[in-house]
Amino acid sequence: MRPYFRVLLALLTISSALLPQKPVPICGLPHISQISPDAPVSLYKAVGVLTGDRRFKIRKDVPSTSAEFIEVDFYLKHSDTYFEVYVEVAEWDSGHVDSIAVDTLVTYFRDRTFPNSISPDEGIKAIAEDVFGPPPDIDNNGKVYILLTNVRDDYDPDSSDSYVAGYFDPEDQGGNGNNADIIYLDTNPGNVDTIGSDIVYFRLLNTTAHEYQHLLHYRQDKWEELWVNEGLSELSPVLMGLSHRLLFYYLENTNVQLDSFEGEIADYVRCGLFFLYTWKQFETSFIQHFVSLAADGITAFESALSTFDKPSFNDHVYNWHLANFLQERQGVYGYRDFGPLPQTRMQEAITRFPVEEVGRSVAKLGAQWTVVTGGEDINISATRTGAEPRLTLINGSTGAVIPAPNLFYEGFRDPTFGIDYTYLVVLATAFSRSAHHALYLDAEGNYSEDTLSYDGNVDLSDVTFYSLSDVDTPGEAAVAFDIDHDEGKLAAMQFMAHNNDSVRVRIYRGALSPEKMVYEGTIRGAPMSLAWTTFRLPEYIIVGGEQIYASIVTTTNALAYNENITVSHSYYRPPNGSDFKPLDDAASLNGNWSIRLFYLVPDTSEDEKDIPLAVGYFYPNPFIIERSARSVVKLEIISPGKPAEVRLYNILGQEIWKHSRPADVFSPIVWHGLMKNGRLAPSGVYLARIAVSDAVVCRKLVLIR
């Protein structure tokens, strides 16, 4: 075997450790919270003598909709003035828990946390109580009980994607439970018998910090909304210097209501990420004040924001959505010293013009992302039905927010689009409720976006992740692409990385040599973990006639690879190596890296595309005329290339006003309230008839003087 493959091939033996962790741990509290407070409580008492040190009541089936308990025996494995650790007898005897795991739990709960903790010399208990408040101490003994147990959750190793990793049970704070401050940590499949592995650090300790927040929060606000409670519990491990969940579960679909919680993995990530942003923006003192408030949910947020003289809740949510995309190191559009985060995934890409996007909907407190690319000199406007979403335009190449008017009342044109920058990002957000809108875009040129890949169109189950380097010098993985079209524009590339560690992207034209490199840069944010990351180039690269090589350069990340491919287009340059070598020189590495290219080619299949008549609604409506102000009412009409005519009638059917708009004008119709005779129209109800060619639409307007 040739020496230059030694670094890569040596990692074959550890590649299994880089595969995604299954099943995914979740919290049991959302299940328990769904049980009616009036539901009858059943207890199945243990039969026989006590086999351990103490007998506790635990949930018979955590996901169940009924409140059923069983009695289980536990060994006492640690006791001091402030907390005790118990292990279920069957779990200890079976080896699912060992003494090293218990000692680790005690050390990090009592004595210290991790280097990135907000206080590394303090344990989880002290930090959590400083931030979230003291425990309820329902039994007045000053102790917290940690129970390591096989959580009964219907887990099936052959079919379950998740398992209940732990829970806090409010029944322990009342007459039906154990009358003690308890958190429950799972030991099967969450086995905690191996120190120094992810199992201990990210399952045991992460779950401990998560569930302990629930216990503390119960004293502060037992009726807290679930999205807040879970969001704070997701923040808790981060405060201890532990890791957060894989963020792509949320960032791949951000069009979800923030203040909802259905128990999906994406719900945990969404709520946790929001509180992480809040903490990074407003610091620990804000979180401390927020959890001390008796109010719940958004009401408590508004109160805390007001106390700290911060933006409104809606503005805070809006800034958070922008921060997830822009990731600036300073200011409100970023996470300051945290990150970078994985890229926010665009829900749709538009490359053909003109286009009418019908039926768009954005969830309350959610975010919908659209990328527009391919043309030049763009015109954009929008209409809505019902609530008005907030639309924001972003220069995708630079990340700058584009100053644009309200697109529902005034069209916007940017002649630099497609010339100074390659893609436009449209962010739609809604606040009081979900909102429906339509985007209308026109630009010079039509393109189709073609994809080139040699990875077999695989998903996560078909690949293995390989580190490109095991030293301080980066390795580089490249794929050669044959682009047949002579007029193509390279627009984006896609790759699948193992983690969020930074990578560099390089594009070569014609050969894999430094003088042939035509682009090098880093992506905005971080790669998606265990998912496809799309990187759009800040400037187009004209392709055709020569091979294009796309590469990933990294020291600490790993790249997906599919060796079930007969023809290899892939290359590798090891750390400290000067030359690329084709992978098929080594028989055990036949196949291809998970790297893809997206390029735009002129689309002449349809030179003209008619856009149906699109008419918005009068705004404001009712139209209140104030004598001291120059009041106007506007009506947005989208009719590219066609003249529009508006006639306004009173309730008697008499025409009081008429306006014609030429075909080359895109601005909204404006009425100042004056009739044809120059006088102000009286208060009343008016009907507008809008005609474009053979299409006619009517709109109602209420005028108040």
Summary?
The protein has 705 residues and is α+β, with helices and mostly antiparallel strands. The chain has five domains: 22-222, no CATH class; 244-329, no CATH class; 348-445, Jelly Rolls (Sandwich), CATH 2.60.120.380; 448-602, Jelly Rolls; 614-704, Immunoglobulin-like, CATH 2.60.40.
Task: Tell me about this structure.
By secondary structure, the chain is α+β, with helices and mostly antiparallel strands. The chain has 5 domains: 22-222, no CATH class; 244-329, no CATH class; 348-445, Jelly Rolls, CATH 2.60.120.380; 448-602, Jelly Rolls, CATH 2.60.120; 614-704, Immunoglobulin-like, CATH 2.60.40.2550. The strands form 9 sheets. Strands 1, 2, 3, 4, 5, 6, 7 and 8 form an 8-stranded mixed sheet that branches. Strands 23-22-25-20-27-28 form a 6-stranded antiparallel sheet, with no helix packed on it. A hairpin with a 5-residue loop joins strand 35 (644-649) and strand 36. The termini are far apart.
What portion of residues belong to β-strands? 25-35%
From the spread of the alpha carbons, the general shape counts as: flat
Q: What do the pLDDT scores average to?
A: 87
Uncertain runs: 1-20
**What is the total tally of β strands?**
39
Distance between the termini: 88 Å
Number of self-contained structural domains: 5
* Helix count, DSSP H or I runs of 4 or more residues: 11
Radius of gyration: 30 Å
Structural class designation: alpha+beta
